[in-house]
Amino acid sequence: MENQDKIICSELFQKQRKVEVVLYPAVLAWKEIEKSSKRSSGTSESEHGQTVKVCEIVAVHKTEDEADAQPRSHPKRINQPSQQYPHAFTVSYVRRTRQHLWRCADVTFHCADQQICEQWVQVINEQLSLLTNRPKNLLVYINPYGGKRRGERIYEQKVAPVFRQAGIFTDVIVTERANHARDHLKMEANLDDYDGVVCVGGDGMFSEILHGLVTRIQTDHGVDQNQPDAELVPCSLRIGIIPAGSTDCICFATQGTNDPVTSALHIVVGDSQPMDVCSVHHNGVFLKYSVSLLGYGFYGDVLTDSERNRWLGPARYDLSGFKTFLSHNYYGGTVSFLPADDNVGHPRDKLQCRSGCRICQHKHSSKDEHDEASEEKEKPAEDSDRGWNVIHGKFIAINSASMSCACPRSPKGLSPSAHLADGTTDLILVRKCSRLDFFRHLLRHTNNDDQFDHWFVEVHRVRKFRFEPWHPDLAPLEDASEHPESPDLSPISSLQETYDDRTAESSWNCDGEILHHTAIQVSVQCQLIRLFARGIEEQQDAEVAV
Ligand SMILES: Nc1ncnc2c1ncn2[C@@H]1O[C@H](COP(=O)(O)OP(=O)(O)OP(=O)(O)O)[C@@H](O)[C@H]1O
Ligand SMILES: CCCCCCCCCCCCC/C=C/[C@@H](O)[C@H](CO)NC(=O)CCCCC
Ligand SMILES: [Ca+2]
Protein backbone atom coordinates (compact mmCIF):
# COMPACT_ATOMS: atom_id res chain seq x y z
CA MET A 1 0.00 0.00 0.00
CA GLU A 2 1.28 3.45 -0.89
CA ASN A 3 2.17 6.08 1.68
CA GLN A 4 -0.59 8.43 0.52
CA ASP A 5 -3.21 5.77 1.36
CA LYS A 6 -2.41 6.07 5.04
CA ILE A 7 -5.09 7.75 7.13
CA ILE A 8 -3.03 7.69 10.29
CA CYS A 9 0.25 6.07 11.23
CA SER A 10 1.91 5.93 14.66
CA GLU A 11 4.53 4.08 16.59
CA LEU A 12 2.68 2.46 19.45
CA PHE A 13 3.24 -0.28 21.94
CA GLN A 14 1.50 -3.64 21.90
CA LYS A 15 2.24 -6.45 24.36
CA GLN A 16 5.67 -5.03 25.24
CA ARG A 17 6.58 -4.69 21.58
CA LYS A 18 7.01 -1.51 19.67
CA VAL A 19 4.77 -1.61 16.63
CA GLU A 20 4.04 0.59 13.68
CA VAL A 21 0.28 0.89 13.42
CA VAL A 22 -1.24 2.13 10.18
CA LEU A 23 -4.85 2.74 9.28
CA TYR A 24 -5.57 2.53 5.55
CA PRO A 25 -9.08 3.16 4.20
CA ALA A 26 -9.96 -0.54 4.29
CA VAL A 27 -7.35 -2.11 6.55
CA LEU A 28 -5.80 -1.66 9.97
CA ALA A 29 -2.23 -3.00 9.99
CA TRP A 30 0.42 -3.30 12.67
CA LYS A 31 3.94 -4.62 12.56
CA GLU A 32 6.74 -4.92 15.07
CA ILE A 33 9.49 -2.39 14.45
CA GLU A 34 11.92 -3.13 17.25
CA LYS A 35 13.04 -6.40 18.74
CA SER A 36 12.09 -6.52 22.42
CA SER A 37 15.31 -6.98 24.40
CA LYS A 38 13.57 -9.15 26.98
CA ARG A 39 11.92 -11.61 24.63
CA SER A 40 12.93 -15.03 25.81
CA SER A 41 12.71 -16.70 22.39
CA GLY A 42 15.42 -14.35 21.11
CA THR A 43 13.92 -14.64 17.64
CA SER A 44 14.58 -11.98 15.09
CA GLU A 45 12.19 -9.13 14.51
CA SER A 46 8.94 -10.25 12.99
CA GLU A 47 8.89 -9.66 9.24
CA HIS A 48 5.15 -9.99 8.92
CA GLY A 49 2.59 -7.79 10.49
CA GLN A 50 -1.05 -8.36 11.18
CA THR A 51 -4.01 -6.89 9.38
CA VAL A 52 -7.69 -6.55 10.09
CA LYS A 53 -10.22 -5.41 7.52
CA VAL A 54 -11.93 -2.21 8.67
CA CYS A 55 -15.27 -3.77 7.73
CA GLU A 56 -14.55 -6.50 10.28
CA ILE A 57 -13.78 -4.15 13.16
CA VAL A 58 -16.56 -4.45 15.71
CA ALA A 59 -15.67 -1.39 17.81
CA VAL A 60 -12.86 0.75 19.13
CA HIS A 61 -12.71 2.31 22.53
CA LYS A 62 -10.30 4.11 24.80
CA THR A 63 -8.98 1.66 27.35
CA GLU A 64 -9.94 3.48 30.54
CA ASP A 65 -9.18 0.76 33.03
CA GLU A 66 -5.69 1.18 34.52
CA ALA A 67 -5.07 -2.54 34.59
CA ASP A 68 -5.88 -2.75 30.88
CA ALA A 69 -4.07 0.41 29.94
CA GLN A 70 -0.78 -0.65 31.48
CA PRO A 71 0.76 -3.49 29.57
CA ARG A 72 0.97 -6.42 31.93
CA SER A 73 4.64 -6.61 32.89
CA HIS A 74 6.64 -8.66 35.26
CA PRO A 75 7.47 -6.77 38.52
CA LYS A 76 11.17 -6.98 37.68
CA ARG A 77 10.50 -5.09 34.44
CA ILE A 78 8.91 -2.12 36.15
CA ASN A 79 11.20 0.38 34.45
CA GLN A 80 10.60 -0.93 30.99
CA PRO A 81 9.54 1.30 28.07
CA SER A 82 5.94 0.18 28.68
CA GLN A 83 5.76 2.71 31.48
CA GLN A 84 6.18 5.47 28.95
CA TYR A 85 2.89 4.51 27.29
CA PRO A 86 0.15 5.14 29.85
CA HIS A 87 -2.68 5.71 27.33
CA ALA A 88 -4.32 2.95 25.38
CA PHE A 89 -7.11 2.07 23.00
CA THR A 90 -8.57 -1.32 22.17
CA VAL A 91 -9.80 -2.47 18.79
CA SER A 92 -12.30 -5.34 18.83
CA TYR A 93 -12.48 -7.27 15.57
CA VAL A 94 -13.72 -10.47 13.98
CA ARG A 95 -11.32 -13.39 14.29
CA ARG A 96 -12.02 -16.58 12.39
CA THR A 97 -11.41 -19.81 14.25
CA ARG A 98 -12.15 -23.33 13.05
CA GLN A 99 -15.22 -24.48 11.10
CA HIS A 100 -16.61 -21.07 10.12
CA LEU A 101 -16.75 -19.95 13.74
CA TRP A 102 -16.25 -16.24 14.34
CA ARG A 103 -15.08 -14.76 17.60
CA CYS A 104 -14.54 -11.22 18.80
CA ALA A 105 -10.83 -10.62 19.49
CA ASP A 106 -9.21 -7.54 21.07
CA VAL A 107 -5.94 -5.85 20.36
CA THR A 108 -4.80 -3.03 22.67
CA PHE A 109 -2.32 -0.38 21.57
CA HIS A 110 -0.55 1.84 24.11
CA CYS A 111 0.85 5.26 23.54
CA ALA A 112 2.59 8.07 25.37
CA ASP A 113 0.36 10.85 24.23
CA GLN A 114 -3.30 11.08 25.24
CA GLN A 115 -4.12 13.14 22.15
CA ILE A 116 -2.72 10.52 19.81
CA CYS A 117 -4.71 7.87 21.60
CA GLU A 118 -7.92 9.90 21.26
CA GLN A 119 -7.16 10.68 17.64
CA TRP A 120 -6.87 6.98 16.84
CA VAL A 121 -10.23 6.24 18.45
CA GLN A 122 -11.85 9.10 16.58
CA VAL A 123 -10.35 8.23 13.20
CA ILE A 124 -11.27 4.55 13.43
CA ASN A 125 -14.80 5.49 14.50
CA GLU A 126 -15.03 7.84 11.52
CA GLN A 127 -14.06 5.00 9.19
CA LEU A 128 -16.63 2.72 10.84
CA SER A 129 -19.35 5.32 10.39
CA LEU A 130 -18.73 5.21 6.63
CA LEU A 131 -19.87 1.57 6.60
CA THR A 132 -23.50 2.26 5.80
CA ASN A 133 -24.55 -1.39 5.61
CA ARG A 134 -24.20 -1.82 9.39
CA PRO A 135 -27.45 -1.94 11.36
CA LYS A 136 -28.01 0.62 14.11
CA ASN A 137 -31.48 -0.37 15.33
CA LEU A 138 -32.74 -3.91 15.56
CA LEU A 139 -36.01 -5.51 16.57
CA VAL A 140 -35.28 -8.77 18.39
CA TYR A 141 -37.76 -11.61 18.96
CA ILE A 142 -36.82 -14.40 21.37
CA ASN A 143 -38.64 -17.73 21.49
CA PRO A 144 -38.05 -18.89 25.08
CA TYR A 145 -39.31 -22.40 24.25
CA GLY A 146 -37.32 -23.29 21.10
CA GLY A 147 -34.75 -26.11 21.03
CA LYS A 148 -33.43 -26.74 24.52
CA ARG A 149 -35.31 -23.68 25.86
CA ARG A 150 -32.14 -21.64 26.11
CA GLY A 151 -33.13 -18.74 23.82
CA GLU A 152 -33.25 -16.04 26.49
CA ARG A 153 -30.02 -17.13 28.12
CA ILE A 154 -28.18 -17.38 24.79
CA TYR A 155 -29.30 -13.87 23.87
CA GLU A 156 -28.45 -12.25 27.20
CA GLN A 157 -25.09 -13.97 27.68
CA LYS A 158 -23.68 -14.26 24.18
CA VAL A 159 -25.42 -11.83 21.86
CA ALA A 160 -26.51 -8.71 23.78
CA PRO A 161 -22.91 -7.94 24.89
CA VAL A 162 -21.72 -8.00 21.26
CA PHE A 163 -24.56 -5.68 20.16
CA ARG A 164 -23.81 -3.34 23.08
CA GLN A 165 -20.14 -3.24 22.20
CA ALA A 166 -20.98 -2.35 18.60
CA GLY A 167 -23.34 0.41 19.74
CA ILE A 168 -26.46 -1.22 18.29
CA PHE A 169 -29.81 -0.25 19.82
CA THR A 170 -32.30 -3.06 20.30
CA ASP A 171 -35.96 -3.50 21.15
CA VAL A 172 -36.37 -6.99 22.53
CA ILE A 173 -39.63 -8.97 22.61
CA VAL A 174 -39.73 -12.33 24.38
CA THR A 175 -42.65 -14.13 22.76
CA GLU A 176 -45.55 -15.25 24.92
CA ARG A 177 -47.23 -17.62 22.49
CA ALA A 178 -46.77 -19.23 19.10
CA ASN A 179 -47.29 -16.68 16.28
CA HIS A 180 -46.74 -13.74 18.63
CA ALA A 181 -43.73 -12.56 16.59
CA ARG A 182 -45.52 -13.16 13.27
CA ASP A 183 -48.60 -11.17 14.30
CA HIS A 184 -46.57 -8.35 15.83
CA LEU A 185 -44.60 -7.94 12.60
CA LYS A 186 -47.72 -8.24 10.46
CA MET A 187 -49.82 -5.70 12.29
CA GLU A 188 -48.03 -3.71 14.96
CA ALA A 189 -44.29 -3.24 14.53
CA ASN A 190 -43.18 0.12 13.21
CA LEU A 191 -40.75 -1.20 10.62
CA ASP A 192 -39.40 2.28 9.80
CA ASP A 193 -37.70 2.32 13.20
CA TYR A 194 -35.42 -0.60 12.38
CA ASP A 195 -32.65 -1.73 10.04
CA GLY A 196 -33.35 -5.38 10.65
CA VAL A 197 -35.18 -8.05 12.58
CA VAL A 198 -33.39 -10.64 14.72
CA CYS A 199 -34.87 -14.06 15.37
CA VAL A 200 -33.64 -15.98 18.42
CA GLY A 201 -34.92 -19.53 17.97
CA GLY A 202 -35.02 -22.33 15.43
CA ASP A 203 -36.36 -22.79 11.92
CA GLY A 204 -39.96 -22.59 13.16
CA MET A 205 -39.33 -19.23 14.77
CA PHE A 206 -37.58 -18.04 11.60
CA SER A 207 -40.67 -19.09 9.67
CA GLU A 208 -42.78 -16.83 11.90
CA ILE A 209 -40.52 -13.85 11.22
CA LEU A 210 -40.49 -14.63 7.49
CA HIS A 211 -44.28 -14.80 7.31
CA GLY A 212 -44.77 -11.70 9.43
CA LEU A 213 -42.34 -9.63 7.42
CA VAL A 214 -43.21 -10.82 3.90
CA THR A 215 -46.96 -10.55 4.53
CA ARG A 216 -46.58 -7.08 6.03
CA ILE A 217 -44.59 -5.82 3.05
CA GLN A 218 -47.12 -7.27 0.57
CA THR A 219 -50.04 -5.74 2.50
CA ASP A 220 -48.29 -2.35 2.64
CA HIS A 221 -47.77 -2.53 -1.14
CA GLY A 222 -51.24 -3.84 -1.95
CA VAL A 223 -49.98 -7.19 -3.30
CA ASP A 224 -52.40 -10.14 -3.03
CA GLN A 225 -50.47 -13.20 -1.81
CA ASN A 226 -53.31 -15.46 -2.94
CA GLN A 227 -52.38 -14.88 -6.56
CA PRO A 228 -49.80 -17.58 -7.33
CA ASP A 229 -48.32 -15.40 -10.08
CA ALA A 230 -48.28 -12.12 -8.11
CA GLU A 231 -44.94 -10.37 -8.22
CA LEU A 232 -44.00 -10.16 -4.56
CA VAL A 233 -42.21 -7.10 -3.20
CA PRO A 234 -38.80 -7.93 -1.69
CA CYS A 235 -38.20 -7.08 1.97
CA SER A 236 -35.89 -4.17 2.65
CA LEU A 237 -35.21 -5.21 6.24
CA ARG A 238 -32.65 -7.95 6.71
CA ILE A 239 -33.23 -10.85 9.07
CA GLY A 240 -30.60 -12.11 11.52
CA ILE A 241 -30.79 -15.60 12.98
CA ILE A 242 -29.43 -16.39 16.42
CA PRO A 243 -29.67 -20.19 16.48
CA ALA A 244 -31.54 -21.56 19.48
CA GLY A 245 -33.68 -24.30 17.92
CA SER A 246 -33.59 -28.01 17.19
CA THR A 247 -32.37 -28.17 13.58
CA ASP A 248 -31.19 -24.59 12.86
CA CYS A 249 -30.92 -25.52 9.21
CA ILE A 250 -31.34 -21.99 7.82
CA CYS A 251 -28.61 -20.60 10.06
CA PHE A 252 -26.25 -23.53 9.38
CA ALA A 253 -26.77 -23.47 5.61
CA THR A 254 -26.13 -19.71 5.35
CA GLN A 255 -23.16 -19.47 7.75
CA GLY A 256 -21.63 -22.94 7.90
CA THR A 257 -22.22 -23.19 11.63
CA ASN A 258 -24.97 -22.72 14.19
CA ASP A 259 -23.16 -20.59 16.69
CA PRO A 260 -24.83 -17.58 18.36
CA VAL A 261 -21.70 -15.40 18.63
CA THR A 262 -20.87 -15.98 14.95
CA SER A 263 -24.42 -14.94 14.04
CA ALA A 264 -24.20 -11.83 16.21
CA LEU A 265 -20.95 -10.81 14.48
CA HIS A 266 -22.44 -11.32 11.00
CA ILE A 267 -25.21 -8.96 12.08
CA VAL A 268 -22.81 -6.37 13.52
CA VAL A 269 -20.66 -6.21 10.36
CA GLY A 270 -23.85 -5.78 8.32
CA ASP A 271 -23.60 -8.83 6.05
CA SER A 272 -26.26 -9.32 3.42
CA GLN A 273 -27.24 -12.63 1.85
CA PRO A 274 -30.21 -12.69 -0.53
CA MET A 275 -32.39 -15.77 -0.31
CA ASP A 276 -35.05 -17.51 -2.38
CA VAL A 277 -38.49 -18.07 -0.88
CA CYS A 278 -40.98 -20.66 -2.18
CA SER A 279 -44.62 -19.64 -2.10
CA VAL A 280 -47.02 -22.55 -1.57
CA HIS A 281 -50.64 -22.41 -2.78
CA HIS A 282 -53.57 -24.79 -2.77
CA ASN A 283 -56.10 -24.16 -5.55
CA GLY A 284 -55.17 -20.50 -5.76
CA VAL A 285 -55.23 -19.93 -2.01
CA PHE A 286 -51.98 -18.98 -0.30
CA LEU A 287 -50.80 -21.49 2.31
CA LYS A 288 -47.21 -20.80 3.37
CA TYR A 289 -43.72 -19.67 2.46
CA SER A 290 -40.73 -21.97 2.67
CA VAL A 291 -37.00 -21.32 2.48
CA SER A 292 -35.51 -24.71 3.27
CA LEU A 293 -37.40 -27.99 2.99
CA LEU A 294 -40.78 -28.82 1.56
CA GLY A 295 -41.02 -32.55 2.18
CA TYR A 296 -43.87 -35.00 1.51
CA GLY A 297 -43.71 -38.64 2.64
CA PHE A 298 -40.71 -39.35 4.85
CA TYR A 299 -40.05 -35.84 6.22
CA GLY A 300 -43.77 -35.09 6.50
CA ASP A 301 -44.27 -38.26 8.52
CA VAL A 302 -41.22 -37.58 10.72
CA LEU A 303 -42.61 -34.15 11.53
CA THR A 304 -46.16 -35.38 12.21
CA ASP A 305 -44.84 -37.99 14.61
CA SER A 306 -42.32 -35.65 16.25
CA GLU A 307 -44.98 -33.05 17.10
CA ARG A 308 -46.42 -35.58 19.61
CA ASN A 309 -43.07 -35.67 21.39
CA ARG A 310 -42.17 -31.98 21.54
CA TRP A 311 -41.24 -32.40 25.19
CA LEU A 312 -38.22 -34.45 24.05
CA GLY A 313 -36.64 -31.33 22.50
CA PRO A 314 -34.27 -31.86 19.57
CA ALA A 315 -34.14 -35.64 20.24
CA ARG A 316 -37.75 -35.91 19.05
CA TYR A 317 -36.55 -35.89 15.44
CA ASP A 318 -34.18 -38.83 16.04
CA LEU A 319 -36.92 -40.92 17.61
CA SER A 320 -39.48 -40.05 14.94
CA GLY A 321 -36.91 -40.47 12.18
CA PHE A 322 -36.22 -43.99 13.37
CA LYS A 323 -39.94 -44.88 13.72
CA THR A 324 -40.77 -43.43 10.31
CA PHE A 325 -37.88 -45.30 8.75
CA LEU A 326 -39.23 -48.57 10.19
CA SER A 327 -42.79 -47.95 8.97
CA HIS A 328 -41.39 -47.51 5.43
CA ASN A 329 -44.48 -45.93 3.94
CA TYR A 330 -44.79 -44.81 0.36
CA TYR A 331 -47.37 -42.61 -1.32
CA GLY A 332 -48.86 -42.39 -4.79
CA GLY A 333 -49.08 -39.11 -6.56
CA THR A 334 -48.32 -36.98 -9.59
CA VAL A 335 -45.51 -34.47 -9.59
CA SER A 336 -45.31 -31.84 -12.33
CA PHE A 337 -42.45 -29.38 -12.60
CA LEU A 338 -41.10 -26.55 -14.68
CA PRO A 339 -37.34 -27.11 -15.11
CA ALA A 340 -34.91 -24.27 -14.50
CA ASP A 341 -32.76 -22.79 -17.26
CA ASP A 342 -29.41 -24.50 -17.89
CA ASN A 343 -27.41 -21.51 -16.65
CA VAL A 344 -28.17 -22.31 -13.00
CA GLY A 345 -26.39 -25.65 -13.15
CA HIS A 346 -27.62 -29.02 -12.02
CA PRO A 347 -28.17 -30.53 -8.55
CA ARG A 348 -25.42 -33.07 -9.24
CA ASP A 349 -22.79 -30.69 -10.66
CA LYS A 350 -21.00 -30.46 -7.29
CA LEU A 351 -20.77 -26.66 -7.60
CA GLN A 352 -21.62 -25.69 -4.07
CA CYS A 353 -23.13 -22.32 -3.22
CA ARG A 354 -20.48 -20.36 -1.35
CA SER A 355 -19.95 -16.76 -0.25
CA GLY A 356 -20.18 -14.52 -3.34
CA CYS A 357 -21.62 -17.43 -5.40
CA ARG A 358 -21.38 -16.63 -9.12
CA ILE A 359 -24.53 -18.52 -10.04
CA CYS A 360 -26.61 -16.56 -7.51
CA GLN A 361 -25.03 -13.26 -8.63
CA HIS A 362 -25.63 -14.04 -12.27
CA LYS A 363 -29.19 -14.93 -11.46
CA HIS A 364 -29.64 -11.61 -9.69
CA SER A 365 -28.33 -9.54 -12.60
CA SER A 366 -30.44 -11.44 -15.12
CA LYS A 367 -33.51 -11.63 -12.84
CA ASP A 368 -35.65 -8.86 -14.38
CA GLU A 369 -34.89 -9.80 -17.93
CA HIS A 370 -35.49 -13.45 -17.14
CA ASP A 371 -38.77 -12.82 -15.34
CA GLU A 372 -40.13 -10.84 -18.26
CA ALA A 373 -39.16 -13.55 -20.70
CA SER A 374 -40.63 -16.34 -18.61
CA GLU A 375 -43.87 -14.51 -18.00
CA GLU A 376 -44.26 -14.10 -21.74
CA LYS A 377 -43.79 -17.81 -22.10
CA GLU A 378 -46.38 -18.62 -19.45
CA LYS A 379 -49.07 -16.10 -20.38
CA PRO A 380 -51.26 -17.82 -23.01
CA ALA A 381 -53.79 -20.03 -21.21
CA GLU A 382 -53.54 -22.82 -23.74
CA ASP A 383 -49.77 -22.84 -23.25
CA SER A 384 -49.85 -22.94 -19.45
CA ASP A 385 -48.50 -26.51 -19.45
CA ARG A 386 -45.78 -25.81 -21.95
CA GLY A 387 -42.36 -26.84 -20.67
CA TRP A 388 -43.79 -28.80 -17.74
CA ASN A 389 -42.70 -32.39 -17.03
CA VAL A 390 -45.11 -34.83 -15.40
CA ILE A 391 -44.15 -37.87 -13.31
CA HIS A 392 -46.59 -40.38 -11.81
CA GLY A 393 -45.35 -42.77 -9.17
CA LYS A 394 -45.18 -44.16 -5.68
CA PHE A 395 -42.77 -42.20 -3.59
CA ILE A 396 -41.14 -42.71 -0.20
CA ALA A 397 -40.20 -39.06 -0.21
CA ILE A 398 -40.71 -35.98 -2.34
CA ASN A 399 -38.36 -33.23 -1.17
CA SER A 400 -37.92 -29.75 -2.47
CA ALA A 401 -34.73 -28.10 -1.15
CA SER A 402 -34.46 -24.40 -2.01
CA MET A 403 -31.09 -24.34 -0.28
CA SER A 404 -28.70 -27.14 0.69
CA CYS A 405 -30.54 -27.72 4.01
CA ALA A 406 -27.17 -28.43 5.62
CA CYS A 407 -27.52 -28.87 9.37
CA PRO A 408 -25.58 -30.59 12.14
CA ARG A 409 -27.40 -33.89 11.35
CA SER A 410 -26.34 -33.69 7.72
CA PRO A 411 -23.47 -31.23 7.20
CA LYS A 412 -23.74 -31.35 3.40
CA GLY A 413 -27.54 -31.28 3.46
CA LEU A 414 -30.41 -32.70 1.45
CA SER A 415 -29.16 -31.16 -1.77
CA PRO A 416 -25.49 -30.23 -1.34
CA SER A 417 -25.31 -28.16 -4.54
CA ALA A 418 -28.57 -26.24 -4.12
CA HIS A 419 -28.18 -22.45 -4.22
CA LEU A 420 -29.40 -19.90 -1.70
CA ALA A 421 -30.44 -17.27 -4.22
CA ASP A 422 -30.66 -18.67 -7.75
CA GLY A 423 -34.46 -18.64 -8.07
CA THR A 424 -34.72 -22.43 -8.15
CA THR A 425 -35.38 -25.37 -5.86
CA ASP A 426 -34.00 -28.91 -6.15
CA LEU A 427 -36.84 -31.40 -6.44
CA ILE A 428 -35.77 -34.81 -5.14
CA LEU A 429 -38.01 -37.79 -5.88
CA VAL A 430 -37.32 -40.96 -3.89
CA ARG A 431 -39.39 -43.76 -5.36
CA LYS A 432 -40.65 -46.84 -3.62
CA CYS A 433 -37.64 -49.05 -2.90
CA SER A 434 -36.53 -51.56 -0.29
CA ARG A 435 -35.90 -50.50 3.27
CA LEU A 436 -32.24 -51.36 2.83
CA ASP A 437 -31.96 -49.17 -0.24
CA PHE A 438 -33.65 -46.28 1.53
CA PHE A 439 -31.31 -46.74 4.48
CA ARG A 440 -28.32 -46.53 2.12
CA HIS A 441 -29.78 -43.35 0.65
CA LEU A 442 -30.27 -41.76 4.09
CA LEU A 443 -26.81 -42.78 5.21
CA ARG A 444 -25.29 -40.93 2.27
CA HIS A 445 -26.60 -37.68 3.76
CA THR A 446 -23.97 -38.09 6.45
CA ASN A 447 -20.91 -39.08 4.37
CA ASN A 448 -19.26 -38.06 1.10
CA ASP A 449 -21.14 -40.44 -1.17
CA ASP A 450 -23.65 -39.08 -3.67
CA GLN A 451 -27.17 -39.53 -2.25
CA PHE A 452 -28.66 -39.09 -5.71
CA ASP A 453 -26.70 -41.99 -7.20
CA HIS A 454 -29.42 -44.63 -6.76
CA TRP A 455 -31.81 -46.12 -9.34
CA PHE A 456 -34.80 -45.02 -7.21
CA VAL A 457 -33.74 -41.37 -6.77
CA GLU A 458 -34.05 -38.59 -9.32
CA VAL A 459 -33.38 -34.91 -8.85
CA HIS A 460 -34.39 -31.90 -10.91
CA ARG A 461 -33.61 -28.20 -10.56
CA VAL A 462 -36.97 -26.46 -10.99
CA ARG A 463 -38.63 -23.04 -10.84
CA LYS A 464 -42.11 -24.31 -10.05
CA PHE A 465 -43.73 -27.62 -9.20
CA ARG A 466 -47.12 -29.08 -8.34
CA PHE A 467 -48.15 -32.19 -6.47
CA GLU A 468 -51.43 -34.11 -6.61
CA PRO A 469 -51.91 -37.17 -4.42
CA TRP A 470 -53.57 -40.04 -6.22
CA HIS A 471 -57.26 -40.17 -5.67
CA PRO A 472 -57.98 -43.67 -4.26
CA ASP A 473 -60.43 -44.51 -7.08
CA LEU A 474 -58.07 -43.35 -9.78
CA ALA A 475 -54.86 -44.85 -8.43
CA PRO A 476 -53.31 -47.30 -10.86
CA LEU A 477 -53.03 -50.86 -9.56
CA GLU A 478 -49.37 -51.08 -10.44
CA ASP A 479 -46.75 -48.42 -10.82
CA ALA A 480 -44.83 -49.10 -14.00
CA SER A 481 -41.87 -47.13 -12.71
CA GLU A 482 -41.09 -49.55 -9.91
CA HIS A 483 -37.81 -51.32 -10.16
CA PRO A 484 -38.44 -54.99 -10.97
CA GLU A 485 -35.25 -56.29 -9.45
CA SER A 486 -35.49 -54.68 -6.09
CA PRO A 487 -37.87 -56.57 -3.85
CA ASP A 488 -38.29 -55.36 -0.31
CA LEU A 489 -36.23 -57.79 1.71
CA SER A 490 -37.50 -56.34 4.91
CA PRO A 491 -38.26 -58.56 7.87
CA ILE A 492 -40.54 -55.88 9.36
CA SER A 493 -43.56 -56.71 7.25
CA SER A 494 -46.04 -56.65 10.15
CA LEU A 495 -45.77 -52.85 10.26
CA GLN A 496 -47.21 -52.78 6.74
CA GLU A 497 -50.25 -54.94 7.42
CA THR A 498 -52.76 -52.11 7.77
CA TYR A 499 -51.12 -49.92 5.18
CA ASP A 500 -53.09 -49.38 1.98
CA ASP A 501 -51.00 -47.58 -0.60
CA ARG A 502 -54.08 -46.75 -2.65
CA THR A 503 -55.59 -44.58 0.06
CA ALA A 504 -52.59 -43.47 2.08
CA GLU A 505 -51.69 -39.81 2.13
CA SER A 506 -48.79 -38.13 3.89
CA SER A 507 -48.47 -34.45 4.79
CA TRP A 508 -46.12 -31.73 3.67
CA ASN A 509 -43.37 -30.63 6.03
CA CYS A 510 -42.92 -26.93 5.25
CA ASP A 511 -39.75 -25.74 7.05
CA GLY A 512 -40.79 -27.80 10.07
CA GLU A 513 -44.53 -27.05 9.97
CA ILE A 514 -47.31 -29.32 8.76
CA LEU A 515 -49.37 -28.08 5.83
CA HIS A 516 -53.07 -28.90 5.94
CA HIS A 517 -53.35 -29.66 2.23
CA THR A 518 -51.57 -32.29 0.18
CA ALA A 519 -52.30 -30.93 -3.31
CA ILE A 520 -50.01 -27.93 -3.64
CA GLN A 521 -48.51 -25.56 -6.18
CA VAL A 522 -45.05 -24.19 -5.44
CA SER A 523 -43.28 -21.28 -7.07
CA VAL A 524 -39.78 -19.98 -6.25
CA GLN A 525 -39.59 -16.24 -5.59
CA CYS A 526 -36.00 -15.33 -6.46
CA GLN A 527 -34.17 -13.37 -3.70
CA LEU A 528 -37.31 -12.22 -1.89
CA ILE A 529 -35.54 -11.73 1.43
CA ARG A 530 -32.08 -10.91 2.75
CA LEU A 531 -30.31 -12.26 5.81
CA PHE A 532 -27.50 -10.80 7.90
CA ALA A 533 -25.18 -13.49 6.52
CA ARG A 534 -22.74 -13.93 3.63
CA GLY A 535 -23.08 -17.60 2.68
CA ILE A 536 -20.50 -20.19 3.65
CA GLU A 537 -16.95 -18.89 3.27
CA GLU A 538 -14.38 -20.98 1.40
CA GLN A 539 -11.81 -22.21 3.89
CA GLN A 540 -8.87 -20.29 2.34
CA ASP A 541 -10.84 -17.02 2.43
CA ALA A 542 -11.55 -17.62 6.04
CA GLU A 543 -8.04 -16.79 7.25
CA VAL A 544 -7.19 -13.22 8.07
CA ALA A 545 -4.22 -12.17 5.96
CA VAL A 546 -1.16 -11.75 8.16
N1 LIG B 1 -43.70 -18.15 23.49
C1 LIG B 1 -43.97 -19.22 22.75
N2 LIG B 1 -44.67 -20.26 23.26
C2 LIG B 1 -44.89 -21.37 22.54
N3 LIG B 1 -44.48 -21.55 21.26
C3 LIG B 1 -43.79 -20.54 20.70
C4 LIG B 1 -43.50 -19.34 21.41
N4 LIG B 1 -42.79 -18.53 20.59
C5 LIG B 1 -42.65 -19.20 19.42
N5 LIG B 1 -43.24 -20.40 19.46
C6 LIG B 1 -43.32 -21.47 18.44
O1 LIG B 1 -42.40 -22.50 18.77
C7 LIG B 1 -42.13 -23.26 17.59
C8 LIG B 1 -40.78 -23.89 17.63
O2 LIG B 1 -39.84 -22.93 17.80
P1 LIG B 1 -38.35 -22.94 17.22
O3 LIG B 1 -38.35 -23.04 15.78
O4 LIG B 1 -37.71 -21.75 17.83
O5 LIG B 1 -37.68 -24.23 17.88
P2 LIG B 1 -37.58 -25.75 17.46
O6 LIG B 1 -38.86 -26.23 16.89
O7 LIG B 1 -37.04 -26.46 18.61
O8 LIG B 1 -36.47 -25.73 16.36
P3 LIG B 1 -36.49 -26.09 14.81
O9 LIG B 1 -37.60 -25.29 14.21
O10 LIG B 1 -35.12 -25.64 14.38
O11 LIG B 1 -36.70 -27.55 14.67
C9 LIG B 1 -42.28 -22.28 16.46
O12 LIG B 1 -43.12 -22.84 15.49
C10 LIG B 1 -42.90 -21.03 17.06
O13 LIG B 1 -44.04 -20.63 16.34
C1 LIG C 1 -28.57 -43.71 9.24
C2 LIG C 1 -28.56 -42.30 9.64
C3 LIG C 1 -29.39 -41.51 8.74
C4 LIG C 1 -29.41 -40.07 9.09
C5 LIG C 1 -30.09 -39.32 8.01
C6 LIG C 1 -30.13 -37.90 8.31
C7 LIG C 1 -30.71 -37.12 7.19
C8 LIG C 1 -30.96 -35.78 7.73
C9 LIG C 1 -31.37 -34.77 6.71
C10 LIG C 1 -31.81 -33.56 7.46
C11 LIG C 1 -32.52 -32.62 6.61
C12 LIG C 1 -33.07 -31.52 7.43
C13 LIG C 1 -33.85 -30.61 6.59
C14 LIG C 1 -34.37 -29.48 7.42
C15 LIG C 1 -35.61 -29.32 7.71
C16 LIG C 1 -36.11 -28.20 8.55
O1 LIG C 1 -36.78 -27.29 7.74
C17 LIG C 1 -37.09 -28.70 9.60
C18 LIG C 1 -37.37 -27.59 10.58
O2 LIG C 1 -36.31 -27.40 11.42
N1 LIG C 1 -36.54 -29.82 10.32
C19 LIG C 1 -37.12 -31.00 10.26
O3 LIG C 1 -38.13 -31.21 9.64
C20 LIG C 1 -36.44 -32.11 11.02
C21 LIG C 1 -36.04 -33.22 10.10
C22 LIG C 1 -35.27 -34.25 10.86
C23 LIG C 1 -34.97 -35.41 10.02
C24 LIG C 1 -34.33 -36.54 10.77
CA1 LIG D 1 -32.44 -21.78 -4.48
UniProtKB/TrEMBL annotation:
GO terms (BP aspect): ceramide metabolic process
InterPro entries: ATP-NAD_kinase_N, CERK_C, CERK_PH, Diacylglycerol_kinase_cat_dom, Lipid_Phosphate_FormReg, NAD/diacylglycerol_kinase_sf
Chain positions covered by the region annotation Disordered: 367-386
Entries under Pfam families matching the protein: CERK_C, DAGK_cat, PH_CERK
GO-annotated cellular components: membrane
Annotated DAGKc domain residues: 133-284
Gene Ontology molecular function, alphabetical: ceramide kinase activity
Taxonomy, superkingdom: Eukaryota
Protein name: Ceramide kinase
